[in-house]
Amino acid sequence: MANSASGVAVHDECKLTFLELKARRNHRYLTFKLDDGLQQVVVDKIGGQGESYEDFCKSLPDDDCRYAVFDYDFTTNENCHKSKIFFFAWSPDVAKVRTKMLYASSKDRFKRELDGIQVELQVTDPSEMSWDILKARAY
Predict the structure, then answer these.
(1) 129 closest CA partner among 57, 63, 72, 30
(2) Between the chain's N and C termini, which has fewer beta carbons within 10 Å?
(3) CA–CA separation, 45 vs 1, rounded Å?
């Protein structure tokens, strides 16, 4: 079903791949993009369980928008293992204005399709998603 604000639909593969990350923990991250016709959100990249946060950051294009999800595993001060699923709305300043507007107007609808997002970050520059920021938002 298309998003009433932007007319952009969400491909079923996006939801299924996100469920694999959430339930089975067999992916470290996912990136999503608008298809070539700008009609629907599709899976762009799938990061394997062994990939790092640095790999995830490098997977985001310098000049185009993406939605992304990262499964962050950490240990609390009480030595308890936890995981949080982060949602990133990546919109670099150098991306085309029309593209940024489409991603912004479709974000909430897309995010609702991914049940289980725990933390959201709106990011326009790599400095806004540093490891320290990720750790601070996880607690």
Answers:
(1) 57
(2) N
(3) 23
State the 10-residue block means of pLDDT for the chain, 139 residues long.
66 96 94 94 96 96 97 90 95 96 95 95 95 91
12-19 vs 97-113: helix axis angle to the nearest 10? 60
Residue 28 and residue 51 in contact, taking contact as beta carbons nearer than 8 Å: yes
Query: Is residue 98 within 8 Å of residue 106, measured between CB atoms?
Result: no
| Total Cβ atoms within 10 A of residue 62 | 8
Report yes or no: 71 and 52 within 8 Å, Cβ to Cβ: no
SS3 102: helix
Q: How far apart are CA 53 and CA 84, in angstroms?
A: 13
Tokens found for residue 81: 């293992």
Q: Using CA atoms, how far apart are residues 113 and 54, in angstroms rounded to an integer?
A: 26
On whether the pTM is more than 0.85, the answer is yes
56: which strand partners? none
